[in-house]
Amino acid sequence: xxxxxxxxxxxxxxxxxxxxxxxGIALREPxxxxxxxINGRLLxxxxxxxxxxxxxxxxxxxxxxxxxxxxxxxxxTERMLREMVRKVLPFSLLKPRMVICVPSGITEVEERAVxxxxxxxxxxxxxxxxxxxxAALGAGIDISKPEGHLVIDIGAGTTDIAVLSMSGIVExxxxxxxxxxxxxxxxxxxxxxxxxxxxxxxxxxxxxKIGCVFPKQETEYLxxxxxxxxxxxxxxxxxxxxxxxxxxxxxxxxxxxxxxxxLENTPPELVGDIAANGITMTGGGSLLWGFDKLVESRTxxxxxxxxxxxxxxxxxxxxxxxWVNDMQEGTINLARKKQLNSR
Length: 343
What we know:
Structural class: alpha+beta
Strand order of the largest sheet: 3-2-1-9-10
Radius of gyration: 21 Å
Largest sheet: 5 strands, mixed
Number of strands: 18
CATH superfamily of the largest domain: ATPase, nucleotide binding domain
Strand content: 25-35%
C-alpha cells in the first residue's frame, strides 16, 4: 500500500499528464469524459471517451471539460481528475499533495476552480505553477541565475510566452492562439476554398501529417475526405503542405506578434541574454513543422525545440515536487503562493 506520493499534473486542454514522484510520468490520456446525460453517470474517461467524440447516441455526451487552458466544466473536470488520480494511485493511505500547471494569464476565479477541483479529486493540498516555469524546468533550463531565458509553450488551448530569470517570470503573455485554433483555422480554410466540411479529427490528422508553418523543400500532399456543402455528399480532394502555411497564417502571425511585443517590453539586459541563450519552444504545438525556423527568421534569435516537447510541462511539475516543502513554507518563488488544506 502506498503511503502517499506527491503528484504533478499538466491539466491540458487536449491531454492530461500525471507525474508521480519516484515513478515519472505515470499517465498520459486525452482530457475527455463521456457521461450519460439522463442520469449524470460517468461512463468513460480519457482514451475510451475520446473514441466516442462525435459518435455517441442522444443520451450519451462526450465532452472536453478544459477549454483554452482553463476549466469550462468544473464538475466534469473534478470527476475526470479523480478517476485519473485513482489510476496512478489506486491504494493510497495518505492523500497526495498536487502541483498543477496553469496558464500564466489565469484569473483568480480560474485559479480557485483548479484548486477546488484538485482538492475534490483527492489532494490534501494543491499548489499552482505557471506553465512557462514548468516548461522551462522540464526542458532542463537553469532559470535560477540572474540571466534571461525566453520560453514559448504552445499547447492545445493556450500559447504561453515568458521571459524567465532568477526562478521567476519577468514578462509573460498567455494567448488563445494554439493547437485548437490551428485546427479551427484549417476547417475554415477548407470550407472556404473547397466548399467541404471536415471534422476536428480530420483537421488534427491533416495538421500532424503535412501541417507546416514554414516552406518545405519538397511539397507534400494528402488525400482528404469530407462532406460537400453543395451536395451534402462525401467528397475526396487533395491538399498540399503549401496550403497549410496559408491556412495557419492568421494564428501563427498572432503568436509571432506577441513574441515581438514581449521582447519590446523586456529589459535590454535580459534581451541580450536571450539573444545569447536562444529561444526554447515546448508543447505539442511547437512540433508543427518549421515553427522553430519561422520564429528564428522573424526574431534573428537562435530557436530550438526542447527534447520531448510534449512532456516538458509534466516533467517540470515533477521537478517542482522536489520543492513542495519549501513551497509550503513560502520560501521559494517557483510556484504561486497558492495552497489550500483539505477540509
